[in-house]
């Protein structure tokens, strides 16, 4: 069976008239007649019968018409649905957030306040190949050498977060080597930020003693504030840390990370959508780092 055959039959079944069905489908009447005859031959049953100058549906024709109504209606909706999908895709920014997710989320919320028509699809996938923008942490010299006109980097200090009543809370700076026996609360080991902080500890000559790890920076902050341990905290991009937590600069080793906001132009037609948010995000980060 071909879709065209089924459409022709459904038109005849609805109108109970071959000529009017041919006019609706913009074909000659013989084309309708031959199509239905082929359909009847393929199904092995009669679908219509003549009654004077009109036609009526047979028992089999009524059954087939009932079966076709919903599927054909859904097929008729496909062009509109594809147009709606195309419009939605044209208004959707795809962002891969592999670092500074709290800051990026706040930037997205602020941007949507004045651009309600823009939609955002936010992922956290190191293997993702297609996105409009990405925010990541540079981890080695090779990545740092891959700079382009389509990326901007921000250097962010990594601080030590301690409970406000901790013995360290009054210090102006601290040497990481003094903390080899302390219990650390940190992000889960598969996070890039965690790997960077582990490297800081190794540079100070020890492996961190992990007493709790979580996927949530908010959980890390709350546990540190509750006096359960200490941890690393980016100076700007993880948001407020509360009165129960104090951030202490680390004097040795130098602890920082480099964040990169990158533009990934997949289609020149999308640049009018992507560019404004790309520049907005850069200015948002500049203001955040200068605050």
Automatic annotation (TrEMBL):
The keyword tRNA processing does not apply. Gene3D superfamilies: 3.40.190.290, Winged helix-like DNA-binding domain superfamily/Winged helix DNA-binding domain. It comes from the Bacteria. GO terms for cellular component: protein-DNA complex. Keywords: DNA-binding, Transcription, Transcription regulation. Residues 1-58 form the HTH lysR-type domain. GO terms for molecular function: DNA binding; DNA-binding transcription factor activity. Belongs to the LysR transcriptional regulatory family. This is LysR family transcriptional regulator. It comes from Holdemania massiliensis.
